[in-house]
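User: I'm putting together a teaching handout on how sequence relates to shape, and I'd like one worked example. Could you take CDHR5 protein from Pandion haliaetus, show the sequence you're using, and then write out its predicted structure as tokens right after it?

Assistant: Happy to. First the sequence, then the structure tokens directly below it.
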Amino acid sequence: QGTDGYFAIRGVNSPEIYLQKALDYEKFKLSTLVLYARDRPAGSIDTTNTATITINIFIEQADTKSPWFLPCTFINTDNSICISSPYTGRINTSEMSTEPLILDPGPIYAIDPDYTLNEKIVYSIVGGNTDNVFSVDADTGNLTMNKVATSPGWYLLQVMAAQVNNIQKYSIANVEIKVINKSDYPPYFESRIYYGTVFVGLAPRSFVFHAGDTSSPLMITAVDDDFPNV
């Protein structure tokens, strides 16, 4: 069943079955061994009685992998290593959000890749939380705010996902939160209608000129009252 060379026995009268090399749970769930016994040494000229017995060995998954943050991308052919990208989000200055922050590519979420064990995961912020602006729910991974951010900039948080039964099985994800000035006004064009002139036969990407002034390229501009000096 593909497990040849993995198992062996030691001893003659009271043999012990032992493992010669590690099994991969992704490949092996069950191994069937046939144990052969005889009451005379091999090569004996006396009448020899023999017996066989079938031994079924059920292989259980060991807790070998640390949590994976999702979504993640496999980087090897046997799908044993999965790398996640940073989570990103943004908040407005001086604005307090009472709901979990919306992040890209999705909420903070990690799993135990030893999927038959599926150990419980807990979350915590272990770095980058200047002034304790953010909190993470230990059970859900939802990121929320404790207080407002007072100036534009970045928070680069490190969030840890650890197994409850073994905190040494953990992974760290980066969460990038951009703080921006709140936008109160939509942008608008400075003119409702623009008129331009273009000549027949011009090459692609040639300028369109102001109607009535073929020396000035037509400029279409928009402004935003949130940034009056820009």
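A couple of points you could highlight for students: The mean pLDDT is 90. The longest strand covers residues 166-180.
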